Give the backbone structure.
Amino acid sequence: MVGNRSQLDTLMNELWRWDPWDDLFAGSPWVTGIRAAQQGAYPPLNVGSSPDSVDVYLFAAGLDPESLNLSLQQNLLTVSGERKVEPQQDATYYRRERFNGSFQRVLTLPEDVDPDNVDARYRDGVLHVRVGRREEVKPRKIPVH
Amino acid sequence: MSDVTERQGGDLQPREGTAAERSAQTVLRPAGDIFEHENGITLLLDMPGVSKERLDIQSDRNSLVVEGEVQIDMPQETESLYADVRSTCYRRSFSLSGEQLDTNAVEASLKDGVLRIDIPKRAEMRPRKIEVKTG
C-alpha cells in the first residue's frame, strides 16, 4: 500500500513537472547522451555556451555553499552536496515536496573547456559555475590581406 | 481531534491554474512544504533564481498567490546547450479560509531562493491553555 502511494506521488510529480518543451528537445544529443539525467533529477540545471565560457546553472535553493563539492576532470563536471530540510517539530504536514537528502549531478561539458579557469558563485539559490574555454580553440577572425 | 485537523487541512489547498492560464505561458510550480503548527500555517517554497525585487505575493481573505521571476546573469551571446528549467516564471496559488487565518498578518521572507510564508491563525483560533482549578 505504501509502495502504491509513493508510486502515485512520483507520477504526480512527473505530471506537475511535465513540460511540452521536453518533447521538442527530445531529439537533442544532450538529452540522450549516456550521462543524461533521468527526469526530475535534483538539482535541475541549465547549461549555456558562449564564445568565452560554458556556464552551468544549478537551481538549488537553500543550500549551504560550504556543503557543495565541485570537481572538474577534463570536461567532466561533478557537483554533489546535501540539502537537509529539518522537519518542523509538533507540526502537521500537508505537503512535503522539497528535496531532502544528498544529490549528485555529473555532466559532460564541451571538450574545449579549460579546467584551470573555473569559478563558482551561489546567489539567490542558484549555483553558477563558469568554465572558461581554452584560448587556442576559440574561433579567430582571419584577416584577408 | 482528527476531524479538526482534517478540516484545518482544507484551509490551504493548492489550487492549480485554469487551463487557459496554463496554456498561455509555461510557468514553474515551485516545490513546497506546507505545515500547520500551534500558531498558524507555514509555507516553504523553493524559488531558486528569484530575488526579493522580483517576487510578488498577494493575499486576500480567500487566496494566496505567489509569483516570481528568475533572473540569472548570462554572458552575451549565450546559447542554450541543455535546460531542465525551461521557464523563468514561478507561480503557485492557494486557497485559504479567512475565517481561521489572519490573512492581514501574513509575513514572508526570502533567503537563498527559499521563500517562507507564515500565516498566523486568528487569535481566537489558537489553542488556549485551560487551567484546571482544584478545589
User: Anything to note?
Assistant: Chain B touches chain A through 44 residues (CB under 8 Å). The radius of gyration of chain B is 19 Å.
